[in-house]
Amino acid sequence: MKLLVPVKRVVDYNVKIRVKPDGTGVDLANVKQSMNPFDEIAVEEALRLKEAGKATEVVVVSIGPAQATETLRTGLAMGADRGILVKAEGRVEPLAVAKVLAKIVEQEKPDLVILGKQAIDDDSNQTGQILGALLGWAQGTFASKVVVGDGSVDVTREVDGGLQTVSLKLPAIVTTDLRLNEPRYASLPNIMKAKKKPIAETTPEALGVDVSPRLKVLNTAEPSKRQAGIKVADAAELVSKLKEAGVL
């Protein structure tokens, strides 16, 4: 069984985001970038399935600038077998990402696509669902447990009321949640081996996909600073303050 794992290059989660003074976007100059944390979980789950004998190959794919090669190398250092870079400059929206991935799926013919439920830069939480719709594949989102069987995969997913387990026929799409696993650290020998693993390159144009943005960002602004609270003497004063604030 072949596993395909899309990974995205995003601003590292430890970095404090700065908005450009003109409000045109986030300042990325000299900012550390790394693999999206949810995608790390997806890579880890794919590797565990391979180690358990459920899969024979793990392929990581990234859509972005040339620097996204570093993100692919991270996945290869964790244990993936090979990588695919789809070179694209600028912002690529979820619909375009899903269309590109659909083309990669047609070429690679994986049995299972595992990807993070969302990226921490735009928090769209759309790519996996759109990809499932484009391919006509079953999908299990927000997975906290994945069990691969004979021609099927059982996905335990987190919903508002608790946990829900769905059984999907392969091929299928799975998006990962935080509680699925704890990603491993790449060892130094594996980091060195990753430098020799193959990374194929292509472009959206070569795949026949138009990635032109459909949305226009009008303005980007930092969240307003949280104001200090006040102490009240009793419940009556609390109700009074809430009425003044227009909450009640």
Automatic annotation (TrEMBL):
Residues 23-211 form the Electron transfer flavoprotein alpha/beta-subunit N-terminal domain. It holds the Pfam family ETF. Keywords: Electron transport, Transport. InterPro entries: ET-Flavoprotein_bsu_CS, ETF_a/b_N, ETF_b, ETF_beta_N, Rossmann-like_a/b/a_fold. Signal peptide: none annotated. The keyword Transmembrane does not apply. The keyword Lipid metabolism does not apply. Belongs to the ETF beta-subunit/FixA family. This is Electron transfer flavoprotein subunit beta.
